[in-house]
Amino acid sequence: KYYVLQHIVAHRDGSGQVSHYSTIINDITDLKVADKALRDNEYRNRSLLNAIPDMMFRIGQDGTYLDYKADKNQLLYVPPEVFLGKKIDEVLPPAIHDLLRTEMAAAFQTETLHSFEYQLEIGGKLMFFEARVEANINEAESIVIVRDITERKQAEAALIESQQSFERIFHINPALMALSSLPERIFTDVNQTFLSALGYTSADVLGKSSVDLGLFAKPEQIAAVNEQLISKGHVSEFEVQIRRKNGGILDGLFSGEIIRSQGKEQFLTVAMDITEQKQSHADLLAAYDATIIGWSRAMDLRDQETEYHTQRVTELTVKLARSLNLPDDDILQIRRGALLHDIGKLGIPDNILLKPGKLTNEEWVIMRQHPQYAYDMLLPIVYLHPALDIPYCHHEKWDGSGYPRGLSGEQIPLAARLFAVVDVWDALRSDRPYRQAWSKEKVLEYIISLSGTHFDPKVVELFLQVMNVSK
């Protein structure tokens, strides 16, 4: 397809009549194609400019506003009718128009893009802008593109404030706090509490890991912390023993979480020093246990015929429990329960409890209430709830014929089943006013005979093993 430009000229004779025509044809295809490309390019440029949310200003080299484009006139410092045709010195605050003139001059001199940031109060609100200045040397003007960066600036300010708040909290916190890199776990920051509590200086710690410093007194705790971190993404209130620089041990309640700080992911750890609380708790438990021992001793003194009975049955019951590899905490509760097994007898009248002869049926009814008395006495003491099994259930029997509730089989708590055998063993091996102590062989034969009725058969087997006796 070609484009041509045709010129037709009429020629006349001497009488003025047209005698002939001449035609000149020029090929203007290239001109038409170039014109279309120019118009297409202008359309694309207009579309691109309209799509850009930024404001654009044409400013003459003398600083006069020539034209503008802004989708949001509310971002303009003054309305268009006020600034068009005027110089920037007449429109903008001095500090800003001086800065703009400087950047415009630099853009003309270097023929490169220059940019700067500034702020203006518009509609009572402080706004932040970024201006980019490009020199259009052929037209002796500058193209200034202005972008609203208020939200970005506010976000940056909030981030800085958050970081500063974090750092303030980090450094004044009474807990031991540390930041370490991931995945290396190299300390990048620690607070003063960390240094003071463990006896280190910053130079001792920064650039090293907890492994380098040997902070965890028990190596297995490192593996446990790592396991929690991998599975949950955080570590929550994990009790650890932390080694001080001088070798002393600090009991800590350790928590940790992956956070973003200083532009990168780091591991934030917080450890509360619970050394004093642990010691106070241990002291309190010791006081409780001393009280329990005092109560049991008082019972032995009241019932003189069973003097030291409580101490003996407690030791033997604990021995049985250990042979089953029960957890230490369970064994502790069994010990307390054994010490308190006859505490309910405080509710039994002396004339029955201390009677030298056999009890009547009516007196046995009263005597058999002592497990219930024990339960009623100890139940309000929350600390002793786990130890109630023996005081409450040691007179229950495997076949269900015991008291106070007639429990049978494995309904009877294990601690009470263990204690029942030991209690009978010690009672029969001790002298009483109405009979002499039985021989070891006779007592063992008696216990074996009650296996499956009075006693749990498995417990009887265990008792014989512990006593080194073959059934």
Describe it:
This protein has helices at 29-51, 80-83, 88-91, 94-110, 150-172, 192-198, 202-205, 210-213, 219-232, 275-302, 309-323, 328-339, 350-353, 361-367, 370-378, 389-393, 414-428, 440-449, 457-466; strands spanning 4-12, 18-27, 55-60, 65-69, 114-122, 125-136, 141-148, 176-181, 187-190, 234-243, 249-261, 264-273. With 471 residues, it is an alpha+beta fold. A hairpin with a 5-residue loop joins strand 8 and strand 9 (187-190). Helix 11 packs antiparallel against helix 12 (328-339) and helix 11 packs across helix 17 (414-428). The longest helix has 28 residues, at 275-302.
Indicate the topology.
Elements: E1 4-12, E2 18-27, H1 29-51, E3 55-60, E4 65-69, H2 80-83, H3 88-91, H4 94-110, E5 114-122, E6 125-136, E7 141-148, H5 150-172, E8 176-181, E9 187-190, H6 192-198, H7 202-205, H8 210-213, H9 219-232, E10 234-243, E11 249-261, E12 264-273, H10 275-302, H11 309-323, H12 328-339, H13 350-353, H14 361-367, H15 370-378, H16 389-393, H17 414-428, H18 440-449, H19 457-466
Antiparallel strand pairs: 1-2, 3-4, 3-7, 5-6, 6-7, 8-9, 8-12, 10-11, 11-12
Outline of this structure?
With 471 residues, the chain is of the alpha+beta class. The chain is 46% helix and 22% strand. The longest helix has 28 residues, at 275-302.
Residue share in helix: 40-55%
Biggest pleated sheet: 5 strands, antiparallel
Shape: rod-shaped
Number of strands: 12
From the alpha carbons, calculate the radius of gyration and give it in angstroms.
48 Å
Query: What's the helix count?
Result: 19
